[in-house]
Amino acid sequence: MAGGGDALRALLRAANALLQQHRYRAALAVLKGFRNGAVYGAKIRGPHALVMTFLFKSGSLREKLKSIAQATYTHSRNLAYFVSTYKGLMALQSRLQGKQIPFHSFFAACIGGWLVFGENNPINSQIIMYLLSRILFGLSRLAVEKGYVPQPKQDPFPLVAALIWGTVLWLFEYHRQTLQPSLQSSMTYLYDDSNVWHDISDFLIYNKRTDSK
C-alpha cells in the first residue's frame, strides 16, 4: 500500500516538473485550453439546455434528458476543439514569425471558426448569434475610442434597446420564420400563448390546458 502511495507521489512530482518546463509551455497551453473549453461549454450549455428543454420541448423524460446531454456534449466538445485549435495556431504563427502580431489572432480564430463552428446547426447558430451581438457592441465602442465616431452626448443605450425590441417583435409578428427556433418558442410562449385561455386553470396555473374540455 505504501509503495503505491510513493509511486503516486513520484508521478505527481514528475508531472509538476513537466508543467514547469518552458519549452513545453505552448503545447501545454493547448491542452489546458482544451480542458477549459470543455468545462466552460458544459457549464454554459447544461443549465440552458435543461431550462429550455423542460419549458418548451415535448416528449418523454428520457428523450428530454437525452436532448440535454447531447446539446451539452456538443457545446462542450466544440468549444474545447476551438480553443485548442486557436491556441495551437497562435503558437505556430508566433514560432514561424518570431513574434506575435494582431493578425495572428484574427487568422487563427477564422480557421478555428471555419473548422469547428462552420456547420449550420442549432448549437453553433446560437453561439454565433451570441458572439455577433457582443461584436457589434465591441466595434461600436472601439469606433468611439479610436475617434471614428464622435462620443455621443447622451447614452445611446435607450435608443438601441427601443430599436432592437421594435425590430424583433416586428419580425416575430410578420416574418417569424426568419428568427431562430428557440427565440420563436420563447416569444410564442410570451406573446401568443398569453392570448389563449379557457378557465382559471390555464389562465393562472398552466400555460395550456391538456384535458379535452
Based on the model shown, name its key terms.
76% helix, 213 residues, 3 domains
How would you describe this protein?
Pfam families: Tim17. It comes from Haliaeetus albicilla. This is PXMP4 protein. It is a single chain. By secondary structure, this protein is mainly α. It folds into 3 domains: 21-118, no CATH class; 122-151; 153-200, no CATH class. Helix content is 76%, strand content 0%. It has helices at 2-19, 25-56, 61-97, 102-117, 122-145, 157-174, 181-192, 201-205. The N and C termini lie far apart (70 Å).
Cα shape:
flat
- State the order of secondary-structure elements, H for helix, E for strand: HHHHHHHH
* Residue runs with pLDDT of under 50 for 5 or more positions: none
Would you tell me the overall average pLDDT? 91
Number of domains: 3
Oligomer state equals single chain
Helix amount, in percent? over 70%
User: Roughly what fraction of the amino acids lie in strands?
Assistant: under 5%
Distance between the termini: 70 Å
Number of strands: 0
Rg, Cα atoms, Å: 24 Å
Largest sheet: none
Short characterization:
The chain is mainly alpha-helical. It has eight helices and no strands. The chain is flat, with a radius of gyration of 24 Å.
Give the topology.
Blueprint: H1 2-19, H2 25-56, H3 61-97, H4 102-117, H5 122-145, H6 157-174, H7 181-192, H8 201-205
Helix pairs in contact: 2-3, 3-4
